[in-house]
Amino acid sequence: MITNKQKELARWAMEYALKNGCQSVRLSLYNNSSASFEIRDMKIDSLQQSTENGLSIQLFVDGRFGSISTNRLDKKELERFIENGIESTRYLAEDKARTLPDADLYYKGGGADLQLYDNRFGSIQPDDKVALAMKVCDEITGKDRRIVSSGSSYSDGDSFSYRLASNGFEGESSNSYFSLAGTASIKGEGDARPSSYWYEASLFYDELKKDGIGQKALERSLSKLGQKKTDSAKMSMVVDFMNSTRLLSPVIGAINGSAIQQKNSFLINKKGEKVFGDKMTVVDEPHLIRSSGARYFDSEGIATRKINVFDAGVLNTYYIDTYYANKLETPQTISSPSILTVPPGAKDLNGLVASVDKGILVTGFNGGNCNPTTGDFSYGIEGFLIENGKTTQPINEMNITGNMISLWNNLIETGNDARLTSNWRIPSLLFDNVDFSGM
Q1: From residue 136, how far is each of 22, 121, 150, 194, 330 by CA, in Å?
Q2: β-strand 358-370 against 340-341: which pairing, if any?
Q3: At what angle do helices 4-19 and 75-89 cross, to 10 degrees?
Q4: Which of 150, 273, 316, 317 is the most buried (most CB within 10 A)?
Q5: Listed residue (373, 378, 374, 386) closest to 430, CA to CA
Q6: What local confidence, expressed as pLDDT, does residue 439 receive?
Q7: Residue range 396-418: average pLDDT?
Q8: Strands (E), 225-339
Q9: How far apart are CA 375 and CA 401, in angstroms?
Q10: Element at 270 (helix H, strand E)
Q11: For the residues 370-386, what does the mean pLDDT come to?
Q12: Which pTM does this prediction carry?
């Protein structure tokens, strides 16, 4: 955690920078730790443990901007470090777009505890962590004669930060996380080695699901046996909740301030317009208690709030930080999403599949890309053929192609199965008229 003594040091460092040539300063004091254990075929394959603490200072000097960081937090050393940083910044090119935000936009405090930190974090023993990972691996190992390899991992971490800005911001945050994962690889036909995974995650150790992870990974691997291509066609597509974020990611990237300013976005000048279909609603909900991604302020200290990013297809906002707001000469919003949610529909994944006469259930993406300027995309996919509301033939080595605007205009139903442990709570999705390329 960040101690009062460390906070005093941070405030001193800010004042020292201001007295030695900075017109403005932003500072972050951080303290992080993490651990991970990887198991391969019931043997420990690797382990990592790290701790990090340091001070990052952003210097605004005579219209120029520099960023420096150090983990040496002795006052005497910091004096020289800050002086050198200021002097070096003076050699940089002038950039008047680099400023602190309007102080009126800062988070002023007073919000309820978001409950993002598990106080048990430091008391969980390494042997217990290894035992959990071993248990996941044991759920796979020896359970089927076709298994080639089994693996699992446990990881956790915590982080604390204390942020200051010379025009009036002060904020503190802390969080923890825990995760377990399992992977299974099996012998298929010929040289084929189908593999898959499953994972669970939580901010709190006691709430982390610890059973059935390896079993689920093995089931997903076995379901891939006999994968092959199917005929090219324009069909319905169901994307499961493990992979739906892959299709939303280019959309969110296209409303980022840097993409807008660099004219590298297919959603330039679309704010206030209906760009997608009625089913496309995405809400940024930053203040959800005990939820990964929750926060009261962004990386600049700007107060977060609930935002309807897309409302029945209408684009309502861009994510624009101070720098790009100055570049674009437009009001800033916040720098990035907090927790993205999609209003749930009436069906889970199985229900969406049952509503499709002919289509493909996508359970994985294998490479591909989206052109950020045009929105044109091509992705390799794997999954299952859907016939008469049921999954039949496992498929792979197929592609989907199209344009993001057309794709999201063809979103016809959203599921009710979003992972509530994720920052992006995107459920399974059903699209119509998707181009699949196969045989």
Answers
A1: 53, 21, 9, 19, 51
A2: unpaired
A3: 40
A4: 150
A5: 386
A6: 55
A7: 97
A8: 233-239, 282-284, 307-311, 314-315
A9: 11
A10: none
A11: 97
A12: 0.94
